[in-house]
Design brief:
The complex is a heterotrimer. Chain A is an all-alpha fold. Helices cover 71% and strands 0% of the residues of chain A. The radius of gyration of chain B is 21 Å and the shape is globular. Classes of the chains: A mainly alpha, B alpha/beta, C mainly alpha.
Chain lengths: 319, 334, 328
């Protein structure tokens, strides 16, 4: 081990400061800065994220505060069209809610569900993958079989089924937070497989390496080996999968909400709003559906671009 | 006098990259005459395969020929348009690669490979091409060719596959065949057979060979002349016996000293200190000078040209006329 | 070869049984079948009698056995909501979904493969960049949004195509088809494209990346070294090798088309199985949900089986000829 303290270059500083400095100096960040499209995608995602986080302060109105909306304001077109109202730049829906505000709150719901579902899927998937990879044998075989079978069914179907079953078990119209939990669980459960497979693969590779075997011989607890050695090696691919599955999770949530089996109507997401607006397409109030639709599309596109870039940046073969 | 089958002058191959341009082949010149086997030998990364690939025009972008000329039988080929070059390949100049398993498409039979190549270059019908294919298989030593012609590559062993590959390269009777490590992926016992086959066929058909390999033993067996490459440059070239027994360049001396000899006195194998430099870090002057036990000041400053010494030429300032007589050249083992 | 088929068949049967078990559990334990079938006035003795008669007090294994036996004969019970036998409802709706799925698959393949090949061979052309951008949008837009957008442009705005239903259909006895009428075709265009767009994008990206991989192989290099012309190299060799994994992966995707049909059918009010299933979820109509689950599983298992066999048939390396495998 080198005993000399290196220069005061921040890269060499230990701890979080050092890690941050190294991160900003790394190849990955350079490649990020080089691609304008990626930076744009990153910026858009950040905007959505922040808007969702600070929704109550940013949105012009709280569309779900029944006291603040009025049917007199319903069906107003966007501000640049005839009949528009500056109070509601993107128009209003059938209840008089400002579309801009509903988009901000809707994005919030979509992002919350999306993130939570991805976290759940990652947690389940990584854990099962590590167990399967490290323990091997029947445990591995069983987990992988289940994974295989589940993989041949599309996520949306699984999510629908879990959702339907949950409804049946919990009673027809599950309210509020329960409905949120249900949808997060159903989406999360339909996505864990990718994580499990990747993690298991890495685990198998690391397991045979000498330093792991050495640790085993010394008697280090298997869980510790796994966490300290295998996990760091696996985080890269897991991050890539997470970004891509975030986009998928958001789409799945939007689809479920559009179909009417997603988030509860009291806290609509972008998907719910699209469904509501769909009824008014033919009568001419296109903005009720189109703006939330555009917001959804832009958000998912941005997340996908980020995921694409991340995958290329972390791919050792392309470096 | 007829032009040599292959004449390469000042060939330079570059790879523009994010961190600057790399030179895989740096200003090399050599020739191959009719019916002759030129061995091109060197460590991995010395630029031998790149030379072969550049000559036949199969460099993948961003790699490109940055300078120099390549002439095939007097005709310049390095600047030919795509389609014209394509016609030459297989027909006048052929190439075989290292791994016979991956050289053949697993979804097609061996017979299909042969007939499609034959029909690309000659005017035969399917039936005639098939007949010719069976003849070729028999010529390269595949038993029962009438049955085996309809089998898939994975039905053949490594040595058999390489025979098929040789048949494919020779079926249109090219003037020159570039063999890039043709035996490296094969078992040692098979290597000799394949080399013998290659040698015999080329002699029978009058084909010249550019034999690229890192195995000096193969060169000593098969080649008429040999060019030794280091860091993208040719450091020595001459008749095989001369170069092997009477190396003029310190690097070649090192290479010869590193070959274990059966039946000789047991001496320690000579090791050349250090490793070949990376393409991004080629030393100034003579690329070998950091590792050379006989390096002196001029070696660090100027890159040596190939200087004639006896029957060979070596790129070493030790052999410059001003230096001759100081006892630094000649006896082969340092 | 036979051993392979038998093994796969057995695997498939196991999977089906597991799925049947899941469906059965749903059936049995979610909600009370009796309550769904009778009105509130029925006394508890009558309910008990009904329970006995329907065999709901028999041991679990017996009930499961009966369930499986019924399923094999296409008897899935009676829909809670619509009071009609499930199999009848399915038979009504299946042709609509299958036709839609078929048209989408054709669209996805017919557009996806050529686009993929083009973007692999002409990487720098601006058309390639256009295709790639379209593909990015294709996988980013949720299916329902694509549908709504198409309806907006082609129905509301331009008025060219109908926005719901199948148009006029022709009854062929066991099958009703919309493909024999002009209005049937017009009604099918937008739903097929909506459903197929995601698949088309996937296929295009898959073909592209596979082909780029293949173009880097030694046998392609050797093919060029042998002097084969571009057409032979790109289409005779590269494309053929690309399509082998692509076709098989696409086959597997076919199953997901049937699942995604749920969304498309909802957007376009296409009277297929997907719409039926969705309504069942909203109404907690267990018999339909269970039956749909089994049916979908069956399709998937069948498709998986066919794809495996296809792989076997197409890739000669998988066919080990014992007689000639020894070569030196």
């Amino acid at each position: 081990m080198s005993a000399d303290r290196p220069t005061t270059d921040p890269i060499h500083r230990p701890g979080l400061a050092g890690a941050l400095a190294r991160g900003l100096d790394s190849d990955i960040f350079h490649s990020f800065k080089q691609s304008k499209v990626t930076m744009l995608a990153g910026a858009v995602t950040a905007i959505f994220f922040l808007a969702a986080l600070f929704a109550p302060w940013i949105a012009p109105h709280d569309p779900y505060d029944l006291a603040s909306i009025s049917l007199m304001d319903s069906f107003l077109p966007p501000v640049w069209m005839e009949g528009g109202d500056a109070r509601f730049p993107l128009g209003t829906d059938d209840q008089g809610r400002g579309i801009l505000s509903t988009i901000i709150y809707g994005a919030r719901a979509s992002l919350v569900v999306g993130f939570a579902a991805v976290l759940l899927a990652a947690a389940i998937g990584v854990t099962l993958g590590l167990i399967a990879g490290y323990l091997g044998g029947t445990v591995d075989a069983v987990i992988m079989r289940v994974a295989e079978v589940q993989l041949s069914f599309p996520a949306i179907l699984i999510a629908l089924l879990i959702d339907g079953v949950a409804r049946g078990v919990l009673g027809g119209d599950a309210e509020g937070n329960l409905a949120f939990a249900v949808i997060i669980v159903s989406i999360g459960l339909s996505f864990w497989v990718q994580y499990a497979r990747t993690v298991r693969g890495s685990c198998l590779v690391e397991k045979n390496k000498e330093y792991v075997q050495a640790a085993r011989v010394i008697g280090v607890h298997p869980a510790l080996i796994v966490v300290r050695h295998v996990l760091p090696n696996v985080l890269g691919p897991v991050l890539v999968i997470a970004t891509i599955s975030l986009a998928l999770a958001i789409i799945t949530e939007a689809t479920l909400s559009f179909l009417g089996v997603g988030v509860p109507p009291t806290q609509p997401s972008l998907g719910t709003m699209i469904r509501v607006g769909n009824d008014f397409l033919f009568s001419g109030e296109w903005w009720i559906t189109m703006f939330p639709g555009a917001a959804l599309a832009i958000l998912v596109l941005a997340v996908n671009l980020l995921g694409d870039w991340l995958r290329d940046a972390l791919n050792p073969k392309l470096r | 006098m007829a032009p040599p089958v292959l004449k390469v002058d000042n060939l330079t191959v570059e790879f523009p990259g994010r961190r600057g341009t790399l030179r895989a082949v740096d200003d090399i010149s050599f020739r191959i005459d009719a019916g002759e086997v030129l061995g091109v030998v060197g460590e991995s990364g010395a630029g031998k395969s790149m030379t072969g690939t550049a000559v036949i025009g199969l460099l993948e972008p961003p790699g490109r020929i940055a300078d120099g000329r390549v002439e095939l039988e007097g005709q310049r080929i390095d600047n030919l348009p795509h389609e014209k070059m394509r016609r030459l390949r297989g027909d006048r100049i052929g190439m075989i690669f290292q791994d016979p398993l991956t050289s053949l498409n697993p979804l097609y039979t061996v017979g299909f490979h042969l007939t499609e190549t034959i029909r690309t270059h000659t005017d035969r019908t399917e039936a005639q091409a098939r007949k010719r294919a069976i003849e070729l298989l028999s010529e390269v030593g595949i038993p029962a060719p009438e049955q085996r012609i309809d089998q898939y590559p994975h039905h053949f062993s490594g040595g058999m596959r390489q025979r098929v590959v040789i048949a494919l390269a020779l079926c249109a009777e090219p003037r020159l065949v570039i063999a890039d490590e043709p035996t490296t992926a094969l078992d040692v016992s098979i290597q000799a057979q394949i080399i013998q086959l290659l040698k015999r066929l080329c002699r029978d058909h009058g084909t010249s060979v550019m034999l690229i390999t890192h195995d000096m033993g193969v060169i000593a067996e098969t080649a008429d002349r040999v060019a030794v490459m280091y860091a993208g440059r040719i450091v020595e070239v001459g008749p095989v016996r001369e170069v092997v027994q009477n190396a003029k360049h310190p690097y070649t001396e090192g290479l010869m000293g590193a070959i274990p000899k059966i039946g000789g006195r047991t001496e320690d194998l000579v090791q050349i200190r250090g490793t070949m430099p990376r393409l991004s870090q080629i030393p100034s002057g003579c690329a070998f000078h950091p590792r050379c036990p006989k390096a002196f000041d001029r070696c660090r400053r100027e890159r040596p040209d190939l200087i004639q010494v006896g029957q060979s030429r070596a790129a070493c300032w030790l052999h410059a006329p001003e230096h001759a007589g100081t006892g630094a050249s000649g006896d082969g083992h340092g | 070869m036979i051993a392979f088929v038998v093994r796969r068949l057995l695997q498939s049967i196991v999977v089906m049984l597991v799925v049947a078990l899941l469906a059965f559990s749903m059936f049995r334990y979610i909600g009370d079948p009796i309550n769904q079938m009778v009105g509130v006035e029925t006394s508890s003795e009558q309910r008990e009698e009904l329970r006995e008669r329907l065999g709901l007090n028999d041991p679990m294994l017996v009930q499961f056995g009966r369930f499986v036996a019924d399923a094999v004969q296409f008897d899935f019970g009676v829909s809670y909501q619509q009071k009609k036998p499930v199999s009848e409802l399915f038979a009504d709706r299946l042709p609509a979904t299958l036709e839609l799925a078929f048209l989408s698959a054709v669209f996805a393949l017919a557009c996806g493969i050529p686009m993929g090949v083009y973007t692999a061979l002409r990487r720098e052309a601006w058309l390639s960049k256009v295709f790639l951008t379209v593909s990015l949008i294709g996988i980013s837009l949720p299916t329902f949004l694509i549908g709504i957008l198409m309806i907006f442009v082609f129905s509301v705005w331009l008025g060219w195509l109908p926005s719901f239903g199948r148009g006029a259909t022709v009854d062929l006895g066991f099958w009703t088809t919309g493909l024999l009428t002009v209005s049937g075709w017009k009604a099918a265009i937008m739903p097929s494209i909506t459903l197929g767009l995601f698949q088309m994008t996937l296929i295009m990206r898959l073909v592209r990346s596979e082909m780029l991989e293949v173009l880097r192989t030694d046998y392609i290099k050797f093919a060029r070294a042998r002097g084969l012309n571009d057409r032979a190299v790109h289409f005779g060799h590269a494309l053929k090798n690309t399509l082998v994994p692509v076709i098989t992966i696409t086959g597997l995707q076919l199953g997901s088309i049937i699942a995604f049909a749920i969304i498309t059918e909802t957007v376009f009010q296409w009277p297929g199985m997907g719409l039926l299933f969705l309504q069942a979820i909203q109404n907690v109509d267990i018999p339909i949900m269970a039956a749909y689950l089994i049916l979908i599983a069956f399709f998937f298992v069948l498709i998986n089986l066919i794809v495996d066999m296809l792989y076997y048939a197409v890739d000669p390396r998988l066919r080990v000829d014992r007689a000639t495998s020894s070569g030196h």
